[in-house]
Design goal:
The chain is mainly beta. It contains no helices and ten strands. The chain has a six-stranded mixed β-sheet, with no helix packed on it. Strands 4-9-6-7 form a four-stranded antiparallel β-sheet, with no helix packed on it. It is globular and about 35 Å long. The termini are far apart.
C-alpha cells in the first residue's frame, strides 16, 4: 500500500484504475485527503459532473460552508471545490457522473 502524502488529494479508485488507483466499474473517481490545520486543497469539477464530500474526521470549510466530522455535502453545478482544514482532518471526495 502506498502512503498518501498529507495535504494533497490522492486518487484511490477510478473507472480505469488510472494513476495506480483501484479500478471500479463506475464512472466515479474517489479521492482521499489527510489535512493538517491550515492545509488547503482544490479540485476542478468538469462540466456535467457532481461531487459528494464526506468529512471522515475533523473540521473543514468546503466552498465557504463549514463541515465537521461525519458531515457530508452533495454538490452539482460547481466548477471548483475548495477545501480548507480548520484542524487535522480526513476527507473523502467522490467525483461522480
Amino acid at each position: 500500500m502506498v502512503k498518501a502524502k498529507p495535504g494533497e488529494l490522492h486518487l484511490v479508485a477510478s473507472q480505469a484504475g488510472r494513476d495506480g488507483s483501484i479500478a471500479i466499474n463506475q464512472d466515479a473517481d474517489l479521492y482521499v485527503a489527510k489535512l493538517a490545520s491550515g492545509d488547503r486543497v482544490g479540485h476542478k469539477l468538469p462540466p456535467q459532473r457532481h461531487a459528494w464530500v464526506h468529512v471522515a474526521e475533523g473540521d473543514v470549510t468546503l466552498n465557504g460552508q463549514r463541515l465537521k466530522s461525519g458531515d457530508a455535502a452533495a454538490l452539482s453545478d460547481e466548477t471548483r471545490l475548495e477545501l480548507a482544514a480548520n484542524g487535522d482532518s480526513q476527507v473523502l471526495l467522490f467525483d461522480l457522473n
